[in-house]
Amino acid sequence: MWDARSKAERDKLKVKQRELTEKGRAGFEATAWSLEAATDSLLSLMDFSKNQSDKRANAWQSELEPSPTGRPETSPEEASQIVRRAAQMFGADQVGFAELDRRWVYSHYFDEETKDAHPIKFSDEPGYEQYDQPIRLEDGTRVIPKEMKYVVVILHEWGKDVDGTEYAPALLTEGLSTLAYARMAPTLWMTAEFIRGLGYNAIPAANDTALSIPLAVDAGLGQLGRHGLLINPKVGSRCRISKIFTDLPLEPVGAVDSGITEFCNACQKCVPKCGTKAITTGERSFEPLARSNSTGVLSWKVDAEKCSTFQIRVGSTCSTCVRRCAWTKPPSRMYAIPRFFIRNFRWKWLNKTWVWLDDLAGHGKFDKKADDFWLADR
To answer: Beta-strand (E) ranges in 180-335?
Structure first.
């Protein structure tokens, strides 16, 4: 975590989770506790960090021997097809490609060993021109070669075989979210190693090194929702994002407009159910709402400080907004019709009609018992 306040809040969250589990709160039963512990244990076993860069399972370099035939002669389009196929074989649910926009790269990273922040630089910046491989210098500075201007963005659906979002906010839902990270870890690592085997550099990352959501938007995998999360046209916000920076020339997809911005303007289902009013009702803005917001980016701003405080109160990473979101649906033909109209017809009255129908169908309500999750036939 970046600062003492964030770490203290995370520690409080763990204490609250134990307290609610001991009380037998719905969604915090022994099964939920075990699900979270089991999935998190795999991340520990692999030494994979959601938030720390260059750990063993998301290392910036490896000892893998590249192909003895050298770099294959492929066009960016062919390389994209090859990497997408490999990532899908390794477990990726969706894959996109983008040209790296350096605005999304963090200026600093937090070093777990030194307990301090150190800069991230590129090799075309003064004083770092000699580096052609990703490296951590003795003073803690990390250098990314300027040639690494392509990004592979991977989506990992959480609750892939089941939709556990209806139990949010609960430890059960958090366990399903952590399961997505457990699936992410080997997929991300093997895809990065595959690229290295072709003779190119690769930096795998989960939540570290750069902002994941704008990279996913640039890769054509969705749009930013009012609740501050990526909304993917197929699975909504029920996904986790990882990325790989590389110098392998790829064909960027570019941002895709699926009508999600106009829909979020009309919908606002997530707003009234946000426990601390961290989600706003107004228009998108360039101005920050809280210290964690970016400036100069047109978006709906979410007060992350309020959000993290509420997470401690409910004993989980919440996800109520994901449950309420009208896009949080498993892939199904029955949702193809509204998605077609949302994408092609931007009428506000029609979008409000879809929201009314979504409410009428009872989607997004918290009316499930956690036992239903384990005992229901699937």
So the answer is: 202-205, 223-224, 230-231, 239-246
